[in-house]
Amino acid sequence: MAKKYDLSDLSFLIIDDNNYMISIVKTLLRGFGVHEIHEAHDAAEAFEEFRNVPVDIILLDYAMDTLDGIEFARMVRTADDTPNPYVPIVMLSAYSERYRVTDARDVGITEFLRKPICAQDLHQRIIQVIENPRPFIRTPRYFGPDRRRIDDTNFKGENRRVSELKLEKAVKTENMERMINKSIPDEENTA
């Protein structure tokens, strides 16, 4: 049996340049019991709202004029004046080509939902954010939720506990040995 969640204490920020879409999403959220819903029609307005009002989850359109959803997500994750770089961001988009989903993932989008949306899918993404919060990763080129979806603790591979640096060195050494072995004539063929 699925768990029931009381979403009434959560605060949402919907960002979309389409008033009709905002209306649909607000109706769905109200149906889930959400009371505090903020809206913005572009990324600049949204960031101002985000800085002034505590938000638990952001629902963000991909394609907007001026600043798109990707740029907004980047601001939320990395801007000096961001109030909460860890806020879950669910991107809603009619553009679901693989490269767009990858772009969204690579700027720190938590979940991606293809438009047209339905109540069940939106609810599922919200519950996913609540039940399975992903740890955040900071590297020189990325800050956001861990992009790996599968935590394979049963990995039995030879390099199971090797650090990335050691693994990289091992691969380079293996490649070098392979190249050296290819360049040494086989003893049987030289006789």
Layout of SSEs?
Layout: E1 11-15, H1 19-31, E2 36-40, H2 43-52, E3 57-61, H3 69-78, E4 89-93, H4 98-106, E5 111-114, H5 119-131, E6 136-138, E7 143-145, H6 164-183, H7 187-190
Parallel strand pairs: 1-2, 1-3, 3-4, 4-5
Antiparallel strand pairs: 6-7
Report what the structure shows:
Residues 11-130 form the Response regulatory domain. This is Two-component system response regulator. One of its GO terms (biological process) is phosphorelay signal transduction system. With 191 residues, the protein is of the alpha/beta class. The protein has one domain (11-145): 3-Layer(aba) Sandwich (Rossmann fold), CATH 3.40.50.2300. The protein has helices spanning 19-31, 43-52, 69-78, 98-106, 119-131, 164-183, 187-190; strands at 11-15, 36-40, 57-61, 89-93, 111-114, 136-138, 143-145. Strands 2-1-3-4-5 form a 5-stranded parallel sheet, with helices on both faces. It has a two-stranded antiparallel sheet with strand order 6-7. It is globular.
SSE topology string: EHEHEHEHEHEEHH
What's the rounded overall pLDDT mean?
84
SS summary, helix count: 7
Strand order of the biggest β-sheet: 2-1-3-4-5
- The termini sit apart by 73 Å
The quaternary organization reads as single chain
Amount of helix = 40-55%
Please mark out the parts with pLDDT under 50 across 5 or more consecutive residues, or reply none.
Answer: none
How many strand units? Answer: 7
The major sheet is characterized as: 5 strands, parallel
Enter the CATH topology name. Rossmann fold
- What structural class do helix, strand and pairing data support? alpha/beta
Describe the global form.
Answer: globular
CATH homologous superfamily heading: Response regulator
